[in-house]
Structures are given as structure tokens and as C-alpha cells.
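Q: Can someone sanity-check these two? First one:
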Amino acid sequence: MVFHYLKVVKTLKLLSCGKLFDFTFLRIIGFLVINGFVRSVDCDGGKLIINGVYIPYRSGRELASDTELLLKIMGLPLKFKAIRRSIYQVVIDYRRFDPRDKVIVDIGAYIGDSALYFAYKGAKLVIAVEPHPEAYFEMLENIKLNGYGGKIIPINAAIGSRHGCVDARGSVITTLTQYYTPSTKASDCAIRVITLEDLIKAFNLNKETTLKMDCEGCEFDVMLNDYEHVRLFRELIFEYHSYAVNRPVNDLLNVLGRDYKCDIKGNKDLGIMHCVRK
């Protein structure tokens, strides 16, 4: 990592005609380099150009605040109401996943970042399920900003192995890393819990559908307790959060191995799994 940063620093010093960028700026560009998003760096009359995109800033704070510019550098010209760390993480996590012409059920859609990414990359339809009210309404705004209302169907609900409800309180920031434990008592919460069976029936989903999950632990409940419906999906791509539910990732692998060939990237506590039906 140090080597990458030094390489970036040297390159930018040369291309900026002797003018230095601040450390925050270099960290951002270093992040892009390390994750494979920088294809070309040029200088035109003292102007820095990355991947053909002119960079008008030398301050890292200014660069970080321009989400649209950063996404354009990353090859994702989308608009968002607010800057969220998850936007960049989505591009990193799913850039090797090909959503073209696929119907995708997106569990844990948050502000619509992954749904918009899939839609932009050519998904046929994305059913985006998000329990947190504030994140859900931000997703609605982001869908409208990008004109993808015809490709993304937003649903304000949580997913589980059985019906119930969750108490999805907290801020739109804290919900990003929070697992909501389902309850069967309506007085405990306000957001409904639906099942995969509900979605399969409501949208007449066939066995070629892809299931994406990033729900901070709910994947264990759904996959271990409702596998009969999980196995109806051709492809699975999901984050596992063993630390959140105190269950080893092998519990998932033992079940999924019956019908799927899975590739895993991460450690025993957190990672991403991509599974395709055998």
C-alpha cells in the first residue's frame, strides 16, 4: 500500500507541474489506484486529468465532496442526494459482477446505491428492499435523480424467514451497520418483515433471478431457515456478517454447497460470497 501511495505522489508531482496536492487528496487518488479504477493520468497545461476526467481541485476536502466527479472517474456517472461511503464501496464490491439483462432482488438496498449501479450496468429489473424509512426515502430521491424509475422497484420492508416486523430506528448512517432482529409483536415495531416467497409470488420471479443481500446479518436467518426459497435463485451475491450474529460462515457454506458453487472473499467475520447454481 505504501508503494502505491508513493507511486501516486510521484506521478502527481510530475503531472501537476510542480504544484503539490494535500495528503487527503493523495489518499483519495491512492484509494482509486489500489482498487484498480485509475486507467490513465495526464497533464494538460497544468490541469490534472484522470481517466479523461478533468480534476479542478487540489484540496482533498473539495475532491471528497464532489461525489459525481469521483463516480465519473470510477466510470459510474450517477447522481446522489448525499455523499455516503457505501456508494464507493458498492462499486468496489460488485465491479466483477455482471448484472446485464438480469432480474435482481436487492435485499438491503439502503439509499439505492447498489440498485442504481446494477441498473446503470444493464440489469433488466431491480427489486430494491430496504427497511430503514429515511434510507428508503433517500433511495426514492436517488432513483428519481437518475431517471431509473422504470428499472427499479423500491419496497420499504425488511426480509426474514418468516413474517413479523422490525424496529428500524436510528439514523441513516447507523443503519448501514445495524442488524434489526425480527419480532412477531406488532407493538414492538413499525416496519414489516416479508419473505422471499412473498417476492417470488408478487413478481412472478423465475429460477434465473439473482439474489443480492447486504443486510448486516439477516442473511443467516434467511439462508439457514428459508433455504427452500433461497435455492430457487440461480445466482447469489451477498455480504456475510458472522460477527453480527455470532455464527461461523461455514454454517452458510455447508447449506449452500448442496446446490451452489461459491467463491468467497473475506475473513471469518466479514466478506462477500458469490454463488452460482451447479
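And here is the second, same format, sequence then C-alpha cells:
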Amino acid sequence: GAFNLAQSRRILMTAKRLGFPLKIHADEFDNLGGARLAAELGAVSADHLVVTSKKDIDVLAKSNTVAVSLPCTPFGLAEDAYTPAKTILEEGGFLAIATDLNPGTAWCENMQFAISLACRYLKLTPAQAIAAATINAAFAIRMEDRVGSIEPGKQADMLLLDIPDYRHIGYRFGTNLVHTVIKKGKIVTN
């Protein structure tokens, strides 16, 4: 089961008092107001948001809380509903993508697949999906100062993909497109 809103508030307030950054999996199957609670409490992220109401998306979009779509979960559960990513972006929200790797609903370790799902089911452009999976995802874990983009002073973690154009990452699903892995500026494998 899931925590109700009062239970979630109590747990999150206790965590906040103890100095923990807040993250919440919210509104996956029922709209319990988790996105609004995340925004109200200044959570780093609110994840899933499959059935978040338009009103709560508006509140979330006005906050610094990152909306994290986990498209592998509804795919793994054969659900029809996905995070309303376009609405979140249209309202000015900050959107990230992740896999939600877990043995119960989304045994997916492949971010390329999550990006493909985001293009297909969330209707994101490849550029939007890549940004959501890189720099925006870094914001969702408070590591944007170190990773998520190629900038001076950052770790220089990169994947070089064997594709003719970046748009192929959303188009060519089920294939490992990685040609070279670079970690902290050093080639790890190619």
C-alpha cells in the first residue's frame, strides 16, 4: 500500500527536521495530492505523477521541485497512463526521466529505453527527453554542479553513441547504442 497524505506529511516533515533532502513517489495510481505536498515542503523531486491533477501540476510547476517521470514502470505494468510530461513542461515545470529500477514493477536498467519510452508515450522530442535524462535528472538528485552536462569544472561523464544523429536515441529502442564510456574525463570502455 501507499502512505496517505497525512502520513506522508508526517514522515516528510520529520525527515526535513532531521536535515534530509525530500523526495516522494507520488500520484502513481491515485491522486492523493503528493505532487502538491512535495512542492509545499520544498522536496527535491516528486516521482511518478501519473495521475497528478492539472491544479497540482500548476502548483508543482511554480516550485523548485523536479517532476520525475518513470516511464518504465507503467510500461512494465502494461498500464495505459503515463506522466503528463507535456503538460508539466507547458506549465513551466522542471521534468526529469529515470527508470525506477526495482524488482516489482520496472526491472529496467537501461536509460536509453527510458528515453525511447519518453519519446513514444510522453510525446517528448528527443532533445526534451535527453535533457530530462541528463541535466534535469542531475537536478533531481542535487548533483547538477558535478554531472548532467558538459561544462568546464564538471566531471566529464559522457557516453558516445554509435548513431548518426541524436534523434536516433529515441527511435532505436532495445539496442545498446553506446560506443564509448567516459568517466571523469577518462575513457572507461570503447
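A (reply): Looked at the second one. The chain has one domain: 5-145. The longest strand covers residues 178-183.
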